[in-house]
Amino acid sequence: MGYSHSTVHDLPQLKGATSRITSPGAEMKQTPAIKPHHTMRGHTERVGGVAHLPDRRRTITCSYDGSIRLWDMERGIQIGDEWQDDSNKTPVLSIALPPNGETVVSGSSNGIVRLWDAETRKVIARWKGHTSCVWSVCWSADGERVMSGSWDANTGKLRSTIKHEDAVRSLAWISDQKKLISGSWDGSIRIFDTATWQGIVVLKGHTDLVYSESLSLFQNDRLLASASSDKTVRLWNLDTNLPVSPPLLHQERVISATISADGKRLVTGCCDKNTYI
């Protein structure tokens, strides 16, 4: 997994061919590969984030080239012009959609959080408060709050601030909205009470960076998977706030982890250029 990719791939269902997809620590084996259905080109720098609109026919991407782009997934082409709100083309590091898909929130390297209208592609609001890069943004389940520092999506008012010792790279809101989970480059995962915004617990175990696409909730938000630069993926029981099992070891840094829709499979992305199931 490189760091200079500026293309977007539309990946359909499994097709014939081969790929290295297996289990960490197991003997490498050939499995059906996921081949790109479309390759969408337009970004000139690294793609920072991808979000699918509810119709599943359109996808929005953000990039270090300072733009946001809307794509037609069926035809594999860009829809309209790129979205720009900064003449300096400041890198856009993160994006997220609310459940209704009517707006888009983006975070930039200059600390500005922007709210966009998904249809007109115009900026509705600019929220300033961060003093450095906004690596991760997420919405509450009711679409009323944006987390990058807990902005109120309706008023643009800063609700609260949570802190780590280093950059906050990942965010996950529990579905009942009573807790927020954050992962940081300081190696910690913290859980906050969203009524008071006070820290409840710190999940300790990772010894290096926790990445931006590395937190995944499953089993009715009772279990959490986290991925780290320490070459491990850890599973946490959120009832006890303790590890479920020994860490899953990888050969290189693990930068992403996600759970299948049925909750039965964990998929991880590793810097050894492999995906593990």
Give a description of the structure.
The protein has 277 residues and is mainly β. It folds into two domains: 42-151, YVTN repeat-like/Quinoprotein amine dehydrogenase (Methylamine Dehydrogenase, Chain H, 7 Propeller); 170-276, YVTN repeat-like/Quinoprotein amine dehydrogenase (Methylamine Dehydrogenase, Chain H, 7 Propeller). The chain has no helices and 27 strands. The chain has strands at residues 7-10, 15-22, 30-33, 38-41, 47-52, 58-63, 68-72, 77-78, 92-96, 103-108, 112-117, 123-128, 138-139, 145-147, 151-152, 168-173, 179-184, 189-193, 198-203, 210-218, 223-228, 232-237, 242-243, 248-249, 254-259, 266-270, 275-276. The strands form seven sheets. It has a five-stranded mixed sheet, with no helix packed on it. Strands 20, 21, 22, 23 and 24 form a five-stranded antiparallel sheet that branches. Strands 5-6-7-8 form a four-stranded antiparallel sheet, with no helix packed on it. The two termini are 16 Å apart.
Structure characteristics:
0% helix; 277 residues; Methylamine Dehydrogenase, Chain H; globular; five-stranded antiparallel beta sheet; five-stranded mixed beta sheet; mainly beta; 2 domains; 27 strands
